[in-house]
User: Which sequence fits this backbone?
């Protein structure tokens, strides 16, 4: 693995792209990008996700705190919440912070906090159709999913399927693809894959994590 330099990772989020993401979110509820994340950061995240000890991941659940339950019929991935614990995760959180600020500049979203986790979908794992937030709660507003899989082929499966008014839209989890969507509006699911699938799922929230 090549050495990671902090200066490689701090390329700003282009103003142009955050403006068009904000517009696409407003007009169609989602936005798909392929070159949003600086390449060195992307490669470092991908490497990190794949080499983290298996024991750090745990079976994902559904719902928050008291209502949190593990339900293998709904989702069967494993996750690891991202904390500011090493250079790679630090740079990721800084990058997301910058995207949050530039989205706030271009749209009156009032995004305040960000939370994210690595997800590992073993072959056959899935996440059934769901939304990421319930209307009326101070909660997740924008979902941001980042894919970390090099050389992914259509026939490997594992697409993110957005259920749109005009019909389903499938997105392959290819390295560097980033999908943003309105957390309360867009029903989506993860289709099973034939190989290991790594992603980062993140959410910009209104209100703090406690609010
Ligand atoms: C989620 C989710 C999509 C993906 O974690 O809520 O929808 O492609 N993830 O990993
Ligand atoms: Mn989701």
Assistant:
């Amino acid at each position: 693995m090549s050495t990671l330099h902090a200066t490689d990772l701090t390329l700003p989020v282009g103003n142009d792209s955050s403006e068009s993401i904000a517009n696409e979110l407003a007009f169609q509820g989602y936005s798909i990008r392929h070159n949003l994340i600086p390449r060195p950061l992307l490669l470092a995240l991908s490497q990190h996700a794949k080499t983290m000890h298996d024991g750090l991941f745990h079976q994902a659940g559904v719902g928050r705190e008291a209502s949190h339950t593990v339900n293998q019929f709904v989702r069967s991935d494993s996750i690891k919440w991202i904390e500011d614990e090493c250079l790679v995760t630090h740079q990721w959180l800084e990058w997301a912070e910058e995207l949050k600020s530039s989205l706030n500049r271009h749209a009156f979203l009032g995004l305040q906090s960000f939370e994210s986790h690595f997800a590992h979908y073993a072959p056959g794992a899935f996440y059934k159709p769901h939304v990421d937030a319930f209307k009326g709660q101070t909660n997740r507003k924008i979902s941001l999913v980042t894919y970390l899989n090099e050389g992914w082929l259509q026939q490997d499966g594992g697409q993110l399927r957005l259920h749109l008014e005009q019909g389903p839209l499938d997105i392959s989890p290819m390295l560097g693809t980033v999908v943003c969507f309105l957390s309360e509006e867009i029903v989506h699911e993860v289709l099973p894959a034939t190989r290991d699938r790594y992603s980062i799922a993140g959410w910009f929230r209104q209100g703090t994590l406690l609010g």
